[in-house]
């Protein structure tokens, strides 16, 4: 906005206020008070993921001057279990959910793309696709089948390979391994012979401690340290193939969303995007410090060997190929791949080349 139009608009705003003070009608300036019930996939206070839900609710309240209130129901408070969170919103029992959409690949396989897929995008690539290259439009298209209006509303950053009782020397070590990993990544591990389970975060520690599972992925150093997996095993793989930048979703029942004022709809959209950035940086800023503490406490931070990565890649491609008979999955996959290829080409020539040189010159 140039200075002249700013002054003009400021004058209009002052006039509107004066008219309001004089008791004239104030057309649609004050939206009515609304309250939305939000169910979440997370236990109350769960590091990072519940924080994102809370941050979103606080932001919405702040930008709407308290006219739109989000009443958060943590896991177990209104409904329990991952499917119930989805069902509560599609049935209208609750107004919105905060969850990871890949929990709902059983409802539609394309939901996977809006959290993370194996060998998919890092957060900057995800944002490029979602906000500029058609990703959000596809999120709405998948949601439309269930009456949901969805926005990304959180991001854990690149997730770790996870915790194991024994080191992984070759892909054969996954054969017969009981491992917790949701989404299409879990299906890829199944191709390597693993017995894969999708457990909610709240049940993982107990399952690992009791030996019900041999290993687990959760999120990364910070959230995993809070979960306490280092008390059970010291073998930790820092990089994983399955969730290179896991996004979280705020999904609203579309009938409810469409009845909100345009300002409240925009508040949800804007605060979801703001939460996406806030959440991503919350994870990134905490992970390095947490990893240092874990290593100081005796945790071995390892990387999978190249031939294990090759096996992850082959299995992941098989899983993606198996879903291509679903037209919307195929369309979303192709859109994502096209965007990822384009952004990777420029990223490699710009930020990757730059940080390599910066590290060489400055050591940081
Ligand atoms: Ca995970």
How would you explain this protein's 3D organization?
This protein is an alpha/beta fold. The chain has a domain at 3-158 and 246-284: D-Maltodextrin-Binding Protein, domain 2 (3-Layer(aba) Sandwich). The chain is 51% helix and 13% strand. It contains twelve helices and eleven strands. The chain has a six-stranded mixed sheet, with helices on both faces. Helix 2 (49-63) runs antiparallel to helix 10 and helix 4 packs across helix 12 (327-362). It is globular and about 60 Å long. The two termini are 39 Å apart. Mean pLDDT is 92; it is low at 1-31. Calcium ion is lined by residues 159, 217-219, 243. Residues 159, 217-219, 243 line the site of calcium ion.
List the ligand species: calcium ion
Q: What is the CATH superfamily of the domain at 3-158 and 246-284?
A: Bacterial extracellular solute-binding protein, family 7
- CATH topology of the domain at 3-158 and 246-284, by name, is D-Maltodextrin-Binding Protein, domain 2
Q: Got a strand count?
A: 11
> How helical, in percent, are the residues?
40-55%
What is the CATH architecture annotation of the domain at 3-158 and 246-284?
3-Layer(aba) Sandwich
Return residue spans where pLDDT drops below 50 for at least 5 consecutive residues: 1-31
Report the sheet-strand fraction: 5-15%
